[in-house]
Amino acid sequence: MDIDVLFRIIKFWIYLILLIPSIICSLFVLCYLLFDRNLHRALHNHVIIILLLICLICQVTIYPWMLYFYNNHIYWPRSYIFCSIWGFIDWGLYITQIILFAWASIERHILIFHDRWLSTRRKRIFIHYLPPILLLLYCFIFYGIVYFFPFCVNSINYYAAACIVCCTYNNNVFSLWETIVNQLLPHLIIIIFSIALILRALWQNHRVHQRIQWRKHRKMTIQLLSISFLYLTFSFPNTFMIFLYLCGLPSNTSGDVKKYAEFFSYLIILFFPFVCILPLSKLRNKIRKILLCRKRRQTRFIRPEILTARQTK
User: Fold this and answer.
1) What counts of helices (H) and strands (E) characterise the chain?
2) Could you say which of 32, 79, 164, 205 has the lowest number of CB atoms within 10 Å?
3) What total of structural domains would you count in the chain?
4) Among 181, 96, 78, which residue's Cα sits nearest to residue 144?
């Protein structure tokens, strides 16, 4: 069997196995955060809710499309608008998620160590609400132009999963900006501010009069660090490979590495809801109770069948 065909089969089954539990987990976490008044009003959950919504959009669109492509076709004719929408969701929302989480890693420092900056409604509007709104507008306008209103003519590759080929990436200035500002810089921000949060957390924990206050922010810190680990493990290798190509690395020398890096980058959307559930202890307990209730019901139905089988014997 050809190694490319085998790799396509492996991707199909891994994405399929993870997709359904990931969608269920996304719905559970979103409903939990949105319908609980205290949770959806908590400032540190606002960006997480947006990221989960982006994940859910990707999970119900591009992942089923990829599964259909991997399972049925190598050559799949699609319309231009369909390919443009696929490309925008596939890459535009993926980069939007990274940029928003980079802001979240900065905002965690404000929420934990400088909460006075958010003491008034006006401060919250300018420091908490305005930055993610501006970042969303920037990403939607930027990638809306790339995929829907380019200054050149995009083409279509029916042999690729994401079938749109954007002509704007042929421009060196644009590619440099998109790689450094939209990809590399957010990852560097995540790395720097995550390490800084760990150091500041350790320092605060050693200060006796700060321990009581620190307990309030422990879950917030665990959530940030776990999501940071997810991005740096699965997303940063692909970004680093793109940056190396931009610096002149020949594509024929590391094509397999780039292929595997792209594969791992798609796992972020699938693992993200599971990482978000880690600090939500109440939700985890509810899910455990639901699972235990199902197991008890199954055992109740199984025991009478066993007894009747023994009596007939």
Assistant:
1) 16, 2
2) 79
3) 1
4) 96
